[in-house]
């Protein structure tokens, strides 16, 4: 399988490249698609188009391919809305939101791993939400999803966490996550989900 990488021109700072090198190294299996760079409204469509082409090459049945694409879209939206900006050369007038995501295949499992910078003050809340999702059965996730819709509980970003709940419903196993300390009160947040493909 040919490795496909979509590298944004903005992903060129030493500190981000060092994190990205570690990010890629930690991925198990054969990397099918990779993106590293600025996640913005201008390049999301191109990224998804490139990924769709790659998924058409991989030997997945139509239902699994649709599920993978849906999960990737949700995770990309999460990166777009929740990545903390970093500043080019310390200039606050030149901020970008750097993200990474990798699709890899390891035997009968496909993993989707995302990475982005978040403020260290967000760690507890992010961990609490993920742990809550991980502790739910599929049926409980379904009920939780319906309850949020019924009560119209939404955050300032919209959705009220519906996207991640839906990702959990459409993936297999538990979310894995880690926070890597950086600088300027920021951490690199890495999330990994799995989909059985056989």
Provide structural commentary:
- This protein has 6 helices and 8 strands.
- The chain is of the alpha+beta class.
- The protein has a domain at 4-118 and 174-196: Heat Shock Protein 90 (2-Layer Sandwich).
- The chain has a 6-stranded mixed β-sheet with strand order 1-2-5-6-8-7, with helices on both faces. Strands 3-4 form a two-stranded antiparallel sheet.
- The longest helix is centred in the middle third of the chain and has 21 residues, at 62-82.
- The protein is globular.
Q: Measure the end-to-end span.
A: 17 Å
**Largest β-sheet summary:** 6 strands, mixed
Shape: globular
Which H/E pattern describes the elements?
EHEHHEEEEHHHEE
Spatial arrangement of strands, main beta sheet: 1-2-5-6-8-7
Average pLDDT works out at 81
The helix content is 40-55%
Task: Assign the CATH class of the domain at 4-118 and 174-196.
Answer: Alpha Beta
Radius of gyration: 17 Å
Instruction: Tell me the number of strands.
Output: 8
Known CATH architecture of the domain at 4-118 and 174-196: 2-Layer Sandwich
Q: Helical region count?
A: 6
Uncertain residue ranges: 1-15
Q: What structural category characterises the helix and strand content?
A: alpha+beta
Residue fraction in strands: 25-35%
